[in-house]
Amino acid sequence: MVWILKGNIKGDKGNDGPMGPKGQDGNIGPQGNPGNTGPTGAQGPAGPTGSTGATGPANTLNIGTVTSGTAAATITGTAPNQTLNLTIPPGAAGTNSVMEVITGTVTTAGTAVPLTFTKTYSSPPAVIPIPQWSGTQMVTGGASNITKTACGFLAMQSRGTLLLTTGPFENAAAGQQFRVLVIGN
Question: What's the farthest any 2 CA atoms get from each other in the chain?
Fold first, then answer.
């Protein structure tokens, strides 16, 4: 007897076939969003302080032109050689204004130096200090007891070292020279 079977009988699996050719590359996808910014780094330490430069030359301030008109003062030139030019208004000083520059020398620090004018004024004149440099210190000051013929002048100089408990000026030392401009009529 022979049996014939119909239907669902499967045979053994066959061998794999050869590999096919490589396919084409696909399209490039969209760019992604940028990432978050990282934190700012800490500031580095300050560098060392540089060395102090050489001391510059002392400034010389000379009186230049003095004219009548609207009050003004200008300094021309380049340090250390500069010129002070003044414009003085007419009026209180009158049309017969007289000017002179007086040089004095400190005899005792902290004591006003008596100055005698070379001219006699009709009323007490204006006495204006002419700032000047002595080494690295500025020399200036102020007049007191101004009369028609004389005044006292206390010379001051800038401090070599500024302390928080003191002002920027101290009494000028004995032997220090100073100059003032005297204007009157």
Answer: 167
Residue 180's identity, in one-letter code, is: V
Chain-centroid distance, C-alpha 89? 32
What pTM, to 2 d.p., does this model score? 0.51
What is the distance between the alpha carbons of residues 159 and 173, in angstroms, rounded to a whole number? 11
Check if the beta carbon of residue 138 is closer than 8 Å to that of residue 100: no
CA atoms within 13 A on the CB side of 100: 16
Is-contact 178 115, C-beta < 8 A?
Answer: no
Residue 43 counted as domain residue:
no
Low-confidence residues of the chain: pLDDT under 70: 1-11, 89-96, 161-165
Range of the domain at 151: 60-184
Digit-coded pLDDT (tens) for 6-42: 556 666 777 877 887 887 887 887 888 888 888 888 8
Domains in the chain: how many in total? 1
Q: What is the rounded distance in angstroms from the CA atom of residue 42 to the CA atom of residue 172?
A: 50
Contacts 24+ apart (CB under 8 A), 91-99: 93/126, 93/183, 93/184, 93/185, 94/185, 95/68, 96/185, 97/68, 97/183, 97/184, 97/185, 98/125, 98/183, 98/184, 98/185, 99/66, 99/181, 99/182, 99/183
Token pair belonging to 138: 């500025």
